[in-house]
Amino acid sequence: KNEVEQSPQNLTAQEGEFITINCSYSVGISALHWLQQHPGGGIVSLFMLSSGKKKHGRLIATINIQEKHSSLHITASHPRDSAVYICAAQAINTGTASKLTFGTGTRLQVTL
Amino acid sequence: GAVVSQHPSRVICKSGTSVKIECRSLDFQATTMFWYRQFPKKSLMLMATSNEGSKATYEQGVEKDKFLINHASLTLSTLTVTSAHPEDSSFYICSARRAGGALNTEAFFGQGTRLTVV
What we know:
The complex is a heterodimer.
Chain A: E1 4-7, E2 10-14, E3 19-25, E4 29-37, E5 43-49, E6 52-56, E7 59-64, E8 69-74, E9 83-91, E10 100-102, E11 106-111
Parallel strand pairs in A: 2-11
Antiparallel strand pairs in A: 1-3, 3-8, 4-5, 4-9, 6-7, 7-8, 9-10, 9-11
Chain B: E1 4-7, E2 10-13, E3 19-25, E4 32-38, E5 44-51, E6 57-58, E7 67-73, E8 76-81, E9 90-97, E10 108-109, E11 113-117
Parallel strand pairs in B: 2-11
Antiparallel strand pairs in B: 1-3, 3-8, 4-5, 4-9, 5-6, 7-8, 9-10, 9-11
């Protein structure tokens, strides 16, 4: 079992739909990252959170530390949101910058 | 947000040659940079952690003599794939954390390098 599990693996939505991507982790973490990877490969950091909720534009990320679960929501989805969304758990620091453990990603396709 | 520039974005090389990939933090200093490898439709795999002014820390199973990492300054880390073989063909991506801040800081990623060894 992977330390970081994402669901769904693939998701197709119509423009305008509300989208939720889930991430569960089994290790203790200091932070949870949500990343976006476009077809060209480049990765953009969307959120880093350790508690509660963060919002940026149409994107919302939440985390429940007790349940070891995080969600990424996209409101009013658009074709340009099509990408792979990756959650990554940041290990509790042991003295140096701590490592990230990545989920396998959710491939999102938003159609017109 | 902070910018990490990775170069080249694509490279094709002949088997047996070496390829150097650069990762630069353009507007911040990074004491630590991370090098990842990604196979098609797979998650990122950490190869090594690069610390400025010291030897890199390699993950289990990653050959340090094969993948040479140098982090000579607070803004530049390089990954050299030595004596490349077709099985080294992959997508390589770096990330950097700011120096001097809390250890639990946001990660900034380069654009990645697609290496094809023929």
